[in-house]
Write a structure and sequence with these properties.
Order of helices and strands of chain B: HHEHEHEHEHHHHEHEHHHEHHEH
Number of helices of chain A: 16
Helix content of chain B: 40-55%
Strand order of the largest sheet of chain A: 2-1-3-4
Number of strands of chain B: 8
Strand order of the largest sheet of chain B: 2-1-3-4
Number of domains of chain A: 1
Strand content of chain B: 5-15%
Shape of chain B: globular
Number of helices of chain B: 16
Mean pLDDT of chain B: 96
Structural class of chain A: alpha/beta
Structural class of chain B: alpha/beta
Largest sheet of chain B: 4 strands, parallel
Distance between the termini of chain A: 39 Å
Oligomer: heterodimer
CATH topology of one domain in chain B: Rossmann fold
Low-confidence stretches of chain B: none
Distance between the termini of chain B: 42 Å
CATH architecture of one domain in chain B: 3-Layer(aba) Sandwich
Largest sheet of chain A: 4 strands, parallel
Radius of gyration of chain A: 22 Å
CATH class of one domain in chain B: Alpha Beta
Number of strands of chain A: 8
Radius of gyration of chain B: 20 Å
Shape of chain A: globular
Mean pLDDT of chain A: 93
């Protein structure tokens, strides 16, 4: 065991171990709620728009997306994907969705949580909560599950303004107002379904906690700008889970504060997440959950992933105005997560580079040497921009990129060996462009 | 352009870009747009000829591969490719829309690479709740603002009402044309129909309506229409920008007599209600009346009711056009249509109408294996 630990090149945060019990608790809550016949919702990640409202109404959310990562990591997703295909769903659909469709088919067939389902499985839902956010799968997926469950599906709105529109205050006003009005509709839907009223005091307490969680999680990620980077992407992926699913929970805040203290101590003492940081990289976008050990191999070469996965990063402190109404506060945070990088670019005087803005900002602020992209066979949302981002970073900042084909769930398409073979050439490229940047007056 | 009626539609279909270049040379201002969601009434009210941006199944994608991965919608990749090769240089501007996730991203990438002097992106919600209409209308107001800023003149509300009437009149002509396929044999083939629809998407509204009137008169009088065949099929699915798939189907013992695709009925079917503020009627028409799987429809108490809400209008088509089979087709990587397949298939099963799902790669060369499957399907339903 000790020998095996020695071999791992990434020094994981000790406090990241505190996240596991939180996640276990989340799954246990879902299982218990199902057993006790309390309301359960299958919910999409909705960027804090609907979760705390459900929680405040006594609903226990269960997250099939996250369950997809669990099934992928344990190698069970392949089986569920096969079932989904047998049900007539195309193979190119979101891997998480295929996993859920297969799981649900088995659940209906067996009349209970399917045999061998990890983490106690997902309890049968009372309703499903979709989101318009980021990708079509987030509402099409649950809509397609209607053939298995005769239960309602509610969809939360999520405006997608153009990059050029977001500097316009009236656009923000319209967008946030729309979301807030729709949240009122969501509450009415829940009150009607559950035959109880929303406890607004409870909601406010949860929202206060959520805002504190977002703040600490943001600060933790800011600390990663230090050289050497004190926290590897692997810790990010472990620790993003409570931020997205358990931000209402005071325990999450306590854990994140401990994580902050540990990361801060590493920064103060010049300790990096890997022993010899030679290259600082961005990972875009979602990782191969089934093959995370791959990053240790890269860490052995001195590759430290200082930032990653823009869609899952916490927003910075709020800069949108709009009063203290609870629903507007909730709406603003979700919206702010989507548009904040453009504000930051304006504030920092960066050029506007449209969809590549988050990566431009990060590349400058995290002093990035390269970007490793991971095109996913079953996720167009996470794949669409990857080539463009690589092009922009190369053209505007002389930062090279490398790509490794794979998938979030389907482990058969991930080719780690080829990526590792390409690593030496990519290192030469990163070395070369480091000189180019310096020659152009950039400071990294 | 000297040809008339069906010949004219055929000419435009064969050389879409050529006709657009002619229009530009005649002094027309050309505005490109994507999907069926931009309110074309507002565009024509500002004296632009709206021309839909589409891809090409028979031209290889080369330049777009430097910008976007191959697992993205092949039609969007083709559109980007053509734009990057200078084949969209007649557009003074481009109207994008958040119709599906890939289209949203495509619009921004298209503008980034082609750099049109005017670009507006419409944020179309995926839901049609009561508040969504206000949101849609606010989006149209912002669109109006940027159009006015670009042109330096105000949009006249009375002119907009006139344009609504003009577009509704064209929609009525399209419905009249489709009605000519209700009889057996139909007076117009599915391929001819698609050629006409694609031509309408490539010319100004007045020219299109004139062409439609000529075609309707010509078709009503023709003696050389399609022959009676064993199968009367409805075609559902993702956009078709070439007739190749319908050609393949109609080369067999089948007539395609109706469709539910966005280069067909979805684009043209529904009128805009005349409302005191025309933007209200436009918001309702484009958000709710226009039926595409990209919009989430309110769920109901049972899956059967849910299917009815989502697909009931297609059942009406099937009945009125007396179809005995449905071809469900989608290009690969089209998620919004892909998720729909088992539910819509189950719906037609329940109605007792056989259906066949075809997934294609948006290329001409990959159609041969599909032909065998369609042939077997036609034999089965005949």
């Amino acid at each position: 065991m000790a020998e095996e630990k020695k071999k791992r090149a990434i020094t994981r945060l000790e406090s990241s171990a505190l996240v596991r019990p939180l996640v276990n608790k989340m799954y246990m809550e879902g299982t218990l709620a199902g057993m006790e016949e309390r309301p359960v919702a299958w919910s999409m990640v909705n960027w804090w728009e609907g979760d705390i409202i459900m929680r405040a109404m006594g609903v226990t959310p269960v997250y099939p997306e996250n369950y997809g990562t669990v099934c992928a990591a344990l190698g069970i997703a392949q089986k569920y994907m096969g079932v989904s295909v047998a049900e007539g769903f195309p193979t190119h659909l979101c891997g998480y969705a295929q996993n859920t469709i297969g799981y649900t088919t088995e659940m209906k067939r067996e009349g209970k949580v399917p045999e061998g389902a990890p983490m106690g499985g997902m309890a049968q839902p009372t309703f499903m909560l979709s989101s318009e956010g980021y990708c079509d799968a987030r509402f099409k997926w649950f809509q397609s599950l209607r053939q298995f469950w005769n239960i309602p599906v509610w969809t939360l709105p999520f405006p997608h303004p153009a990059y050029t529109d977001t500097s316009l205050q009236d656009v923000h006003k319209v967008n946030v107002e729309y979301m807030a009005v729709e949240l009122q509709g969501f509450i009415a839907f829940l009150e009607n379904l559950l035959k109880k009223k929303l406890d607004r005091d409870k909601l406010e307490t949860m929202l206060d906690n959520q805002e504190k969680v977002l703040k600490v999680w943001w600060e933790i990620n800011e600390l990663r700008k230090a050289k050497p980077c004190p926290m590897h992407a692997r810790d990010f992926w472990t620790m993003m889970v409570p931020c997205y699913y358990l931000a209402y929970d005071p325990e999450t805040l306590t854990v994140y504060q401990q994580v902050y203290n540990e990361v801060k101590a590493r920064v103060d003492n010049g300790i990096g997440a890997i022993p010899d940081e030679k290259y600082r990289l961005i990972f875009a976008e979602l990782p191969p959950w089934h093959s995370l050990g791959f990053f240790d191999k890269l860490a052995e070469r001195g590759w430290n992933f200082a930032t990653e996965s823009i869609g899952y990063h916490p927003p910075p402190p709020m800069e949108l105005n709009g009063g203290s109404d609870l629903l507007y506060r909730i709406a603003r945070w979700t919206y702010w997560q989507y548009i904040n990088t453009r504000y930051r670019a304006a504030k920092m005087g960066y050029p506007a580079v449209g969809a590549a803005q988050p990566f431009y900002n990060w590349a400058v602020e995290y002093k990035i040497d390269g970007i490793l992209t991971h095109p996913l066979v079953t996720c167009r949302t996470a794949t669409f921009w990857l080539t463009h981002w690589m092009n922009v970073l190369r053209d505007k900042l002389d930062i090279p990129g490398m790509s490794i084909q794979g998938d979030i769930v389907d482990l058969t398409v991930f080719d780690a060996a080829t990526a590792l073979n390409q690593a030496p050439a990519f290192e030469e490229s990163m070395d070369h462009f480091r000189k180019v940047r310096k020659s152009k007056g950039l400071d990294w | 352009m000297s040809s008339k009626g069906l010949a004219k539609a055929e000419d435009i279909y064969a050389n879409r870009a050529g006709r657009v270049r002619e229009l530009k040379a005649e002094g027309k201002k050309i505005m490109g747009y994507v999907c069926a969601y931009p309110p074309l009434e507002m565009v024509t009210a500002m004296d632009y000829a709206p021309i839909r941006v589409i891809g090409s199944m028979d031209q290889p994608i080369t330049k777009a591969d430097t910008q976007v991965a191959s697992i993205i919608c092949p039609m969007l990749r083709s559109m980007l490719d053509l734009g990057m090769k200078g084949k969209a240089d007649f557009f003074e501007g481009f109207i994008g829309a958040h119709t599906c996730d890939c289209t949203e991203k495509f619009c921004h990438l298209y503008q980034y690479n082609v750099q049109f002097p005017y670009y507006h992106f419409l944020d179309v919600p995926h839901i049609a709740h009561k508040a969504s209409f206000g949101f849609m209308k606010a989006g149209f107001q912002l669109f109006q603002k940027t159009l006015e800023a670009h042109t330096g003149r105000k949009l006249d509300p009375d002119r907009l009402k006139e344009e609504v009437k003009k577009h509704n009149a064209q929609r009525a002509l399209v419905r009249e044309l489709y009605a000519l396929r209700k009889q057996d044999p139909p007076l117009l083939s599915g391929s001819e129909n698609l050629q006409i629809m694609l031509s309408l998407l490539s010319i100004p509204i007045e020219e299109g309506s004139g062409m439609l009137k000529d075609i309707i008169a010509e078709v009503k009088a023709r003696k050389d229409g399609p022959k009676k065949k064993a199968a009367r099929l409805l075609l559902w699915g993702s956009p078709l920008t070439e007739t190749s798939i319908i050609d393949m189907i109609e080369s067999l013992n089948a007539n395609v007599v109706m469709d539910d695709i966005c280069t067909g009925t979805r684009h043209f079917w529904h009128d805009v209600e005349m409302t005191s503020d025309p933007l209200d009627g436009l918001a309702k028409r484009y958000l709710d009346d226009l039926k595409c799987p990209r919009t989430f429809r309110e769920t109901t108490s049972s899956f059967e009711e849910d299917q009815e809400v989502r697909f009931g209008y297609i059942k009406d088509y099937a009945k009125e056009w007396n179809v005995n089979g449905v071809i469900l087709q989608s290009m690969k990587y089209c998620d919004t249509h892909g998720y729909e397949v088992p539910a819509i298939k189950a719906y037609f099963d329940r109605l007792g109408i056989p259906s066949l799902y075809l997934e294609h790669e948006y290329t001409m060369v990959a159609l041969a294996p599909l032909k065998t499957r369609v042939e077997a399907f036609i034999e089965m339903i005949s």
